[in-house]
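Please describe what follows:
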Amino acid sequence: MAGKIFTKATKKFFDGTFGALTSLDTRVALLLTTLDPSTLQDSAEFMSDLTPGTNEFDGANYTGGPGGAGRKATANESFSIENATDRTEFTFDPLVWTALGAGTTNVGYAILYVHNAADASAALIGYFPVNLPATGSNFTLTPHADGALQAQAV
C-alpha cells in the first residue's frame, strides 16, 4: 500500500513552498504504534507535531530526534507517471535499519519529511503504515511498487 500525503504538505506542493521534491533533503523517521498519523492528517505540519514525548521509535540501534542516526536520508528519489490510473508516483531506494531492537511498542509508521535541524521546522510530507515488531533483525523499508506516495488526477 502506498503512503498518504499530509494535507498541509499538499498545499506546500501546490503553492511552491517545497519546490522540486527530488531537490529536498527528505528523510524517514519511525514512529511507535502509540500515534496513528492519520488522526493528525489535516492538522500536522511539522515533525514536532508527531514527536512530542515518546512517539518516535525508541528501540536499540535507533536514535531519534533531528540529528539522530535512526532517521534515514532517502536516495535516488524519482517520479513516474501511471497513465492508466491518472496518477504520479514518487519513490526512493529502500532504506535499511541494522539490528533494530525492541521498542516500547512495534514500529507503527514510517514518516517522510523534509529534514531540518529543528523538528519544529521539519515539514511533513507523508506516512506509511509499517507495523513491525523490532526483534534485533535488520529492517528494510521498501517503497510500494506503485510508489511510496501517489498523487492522482480527478
The first helix runs from residue 7 to 15. Residues 89 and 152 are 9 Å apart (CA to CA). Residues 4-152 form one domain. The beta strands are 4-5, 26-32, 72-73, 78-82, 87-91, 95-97, 107-114, 124-132, 139-141, 149-152.
